[in-house]
C-alpha cells in the first residue's frame, strides 16, 4: 500500500443536520462491511459513529467525516474514522456522554492532524479479510460511490432490526445462562452430597484410627510391662544362678589344689571339664545380667577423656588368648595419635571386646582386625573379619536377642553379645552398623561422637 493511497480516504461525508447522523451511521456500517469487518463489529463502529456525531453536532455545529484504512504497528490493518469538528472543541478535549462508546471501538482519541483537530476512532480489520491493496481500495471507493444513502426511516428500521437481533441474542444467552445455572446448581448438590458422604466416611475412618491408636497404646503398655518383667526375670535368674555356678567353680579349684588329696588322671580330667563348663555357664549368666541392666536403664555412662591407645593395647593382650585357631590372626591396629575422645572407657571396651570375640568365634581362617579413625567430629571403629559373611536379609535379625545365624559355622553362645553391644553404643550416643555378604566376611562399624553423648 503506497503512502498516497493510504492518505486518500475511502469515503467523505458532511455532518450538518440531525438527519446526517443516520446517514453517517449507515455509511459507516457499509464501509465496515466493504473492508471486511464482521457483522458485530460493523454494528459497533456504526453505533460509535452515530453517538460521536450526535455529540459533535450539539457542541460544535457539525463535522467533516472521512474513512481510511491504515497499516498498524501490530501488523494488522485498521479501519479509521476521522470526525473534524466545524468549531473548536470545548476546552480542546472530547469526552463522549456515554463511556460505552470507547468500548465499541479499539481506539477513541482526539488528535491534531496538520493543525486540524479531529476525533479519531478505529477498529481492527480481521486477519481473514482480503488484504487492502491499492487496487482493492480503489474498488472499495467505486463500490461505495455507487450506493446512495438511505432515508432516516430506512436507517431507523435497520437499527430496530439490529436491536431486535441483539435482544434475541441476549434472550438466547439468558436462556443458556439459566440452563447453565441449573446445571451448576445440580452439580453443586451432587458435590455437596459427595462432600457429606466423604465427611461421614472420614469421620468413621477417624473413629477407627482413634480406636486403633487406643489399642496400640494398650499393646505398647503390655509390651513395656512384658519387657520390664523379662528384664526383672533375667536379673533375678542371673543373680540366683551366679551363686551356685561360682560355688561349682570354687569346689573344682579346691579339688585340683595341690593341698587336696591327689586325683587320678581320669578324675582330674572330669574335674577340669566341670570347671570349664561352669566357667562357660558363668559367662552366659553374666551376659544375661548385663543385658538386663542395659534394658532396665540402670547403666549410666561415665564420660571421661579416653586415650584409645591403652584401650587397644589391653584388647590386644586379653583377646590374643582367644585366637586359638592357627589359621586366624588377631590384628589390633594402633590408632594414630592423638587418639582421644570423651566416652565411657569401660563400656567402649565391652563393645569392642564383644565384636572382636564374635569375629574370632565365627572366623575359621584369615584374620579379625580392629582399626579406628577420626572423621570430623566422630570416631569410627571397624571390626572386620574374613568369616562366612551374613546375608542382607539377616542383618537386622542378628541384633535380636538369642538369635544366631544358622549354618555350619554356628558356635555355642546365647546370642546376646551383639544386642548388648548395640544397646551400649546407643547409650554412648553412637550407632552400630553391619556391612556383610555371604562369602565376603563382615564389618561392624561403631560411630561415636568425639565430644561424648
Automatic annotation (TrEMBL):
<dbReference type="Pfam" id="PF00512">
    <property type="entry name" value="HisKA"/>
</dbReference>
<dbReference type="InterPro" id="IPR036890">
    <property type="entry name" value="HATPase_C_sf"/>
</dbReference>
<protein>
    <recommendedName>
        <fullName>histidine kinase</fullName>
        <ecNumber>2.7.13.3</ecNumber>
    </recommendedName>
</protein>
<feature type="domain" description="Histidine kinase">
    <location>
        <begin position="236"/>
        <end position="452"/>
    </location>
</feature>
<dbReference type="GO" id="GO:0016301">
    <property type="term" value="F:kinase activity"/>
</dbReference>
<dbReference type="InterPro" id="IPR004358">
    <property type="entry name" value="Sig_transdc_His_kin-like_C"/>
</dbReference>
<dbReference type="InterPro" id="IPR003661">
    <property type="entry name" value="HisK_dim/P_dom"/>
</dbReference>
<dbReference type="InterPro" id="IPR036097">
    <property type="entry name" value="HisK_dim/P_sf"/>
</dbReference>
<dbReference type="InterPro" id="IPR005467">
    <property type="entry name" value="His_kinase_dom"/>
</dbReference>
<keyword id="KW-0597">Phosphoprotein</keyword>
<dbReference type="InterPro" id="IPR050736">
    <property type="entry name" value="Sensor_HK_Regulatory"/>
</dbReference>
<keyword id="KW-0418">Kinase</keyword>
<dbReference type="Pfam" id="PF02518">
    <property type="entry name" value="HATPase_c"/>
</dbReference>
<keyword id="KW-0175">Coiled coil</keyword>
<feature type="coiled-coil region">
    <location>
        <begin position="153"/>
        <end position="215"/>
    </location>
</feature>
<keyword id="KW-0902">Two-component regulatory system</keyword>
<keyword id="KW-0808">Transferase</keyword>
<dbReference type="InterPro" id="IPR003594">
    <property type="entry name" value="HATPase_dom"/>
</dbReference>
Amino acid at each position: 500500500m503506497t503512502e498516497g493511497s493510504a492518505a486518500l480516504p475511502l469515503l467523505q461525508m458532511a455532518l450538518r443536520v440531525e438527519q446526517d447522523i443516520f446517514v453517517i451511521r449507515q455509511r459507516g456500517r457499509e464501509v465496515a462491511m466493504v473492508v471486511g469487518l464482521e457483522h458485530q463489529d460493523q454494528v459497533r463502529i456504526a453505533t460509535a459513529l452515530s453517538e460521536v456525531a450526535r455529540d459533535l453536532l450539539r457542541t460544535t455545529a457539525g463535522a467533516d467525516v472521512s474513512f481510511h484504512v491504515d497499516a498498524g504497528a501490530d501488523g494488522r490493518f485498521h479501519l479509521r474514522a476521522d470526525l473534524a469538528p466545524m468549531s473548536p472543541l470545548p476546552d480542546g478535549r472530547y469526552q463522549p456522554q456515554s463511556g460505552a462508546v470507547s468500548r465499541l471501538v479499539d481506539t477513541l482519541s482526539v488528535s491534531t492532524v496538520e493543525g486540524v483537530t479531529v476525533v479519531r476512532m478505529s477498529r481492527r480489520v480481521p486477519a481473514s479479510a482480503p488484504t487492502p491493496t491499492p487496487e482493492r481500495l480503489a474498488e472499495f471507493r467505486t463500490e461505495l460511490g455507487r450506493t446512495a444513502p438511505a432515508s432516516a426511516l430506512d436507517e431507523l428500521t435497520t437499527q430496530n432490526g439490529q436491536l431486535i437481533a441483539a435482544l434475541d441474542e441476549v434472550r438466547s444467552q439468558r436462556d443458556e445462562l439459566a440452563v447453565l445455572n441449573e446445571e451448576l446448581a445440580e452439580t453443586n448438590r451432587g458435590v455437596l452430597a459427595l462432600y457429606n458422604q466423604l465427611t461421614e466416611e472420614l469421620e468413621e475412618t477417624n473413629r477407627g484410627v482413634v480406636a486403633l491408636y487406643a489399642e496400640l497404646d494398650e499393646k505398647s503398655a503390655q509390651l513395656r510391662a512384658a519387657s520390664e518383667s523379662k528384664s526383672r526375670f533375667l536379673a533375678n535368674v542371673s543373680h540366683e544362678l551366679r551363686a551356685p555356678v561360682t560355688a561349682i567353680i570354687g569346689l573344682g579349684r579346691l579339688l585340683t589344689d595341690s593341698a587336696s588329696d591327689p586325683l587320678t588322671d581320669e578324675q582330674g580330667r572330669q574335674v577340669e571339664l566341670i570347671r570349664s563348663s561352669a566357667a562357660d555357664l558363668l559367662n552366659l549368666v553374666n551376659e544375661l545380667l548385663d543385658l538386663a541392666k542395659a534394658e532396665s536403664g540402670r547403666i549410666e555412662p561415665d564420660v571421661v577423656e579416653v586415650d584409645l591407645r591403652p584401650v587397644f593395647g589391653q584388647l590386644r593382650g586379653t583377646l590374643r588368648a582367644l585366637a586359638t585357631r592357627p589359621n586366624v590372626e588377631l590384628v589390633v591396629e594402633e590408632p594414630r595419635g592423638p587418639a582421644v575422645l570423651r566416652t565411657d572407657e569401660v563400656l567402649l571396651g565391652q563393645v569392642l571386646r564383644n565384636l572382636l570375640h564374635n569375629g574370632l568365634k565365627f572366623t575359621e581362617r584369615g584374620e579379625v582386625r580392629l582399626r579406628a579413625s577420626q572423621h570430623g567430629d566422630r570416631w569410627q571403629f571397624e571390626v572386620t573379619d574374613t568369616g562366612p559373611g551374613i546375608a542382607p536379609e539377616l542383618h537386622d535379625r542378628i541384633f535380636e536377642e538369642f538369635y544366631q545365624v544358622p549354618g555350619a559355622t554356628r558356635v555355642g553362645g546365647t546370642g546376646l553379645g551383639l544386642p548388648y553391644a548395640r544397646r551400649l553404643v546407643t547409650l554412648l550416643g553412637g550407632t552400630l552398623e553391619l556391612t556383610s555378604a555371604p562369602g565376603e566376611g563382615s564389618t561392624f562399624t561403631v560411630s561415636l561422637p568425639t565430644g561424648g553423648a
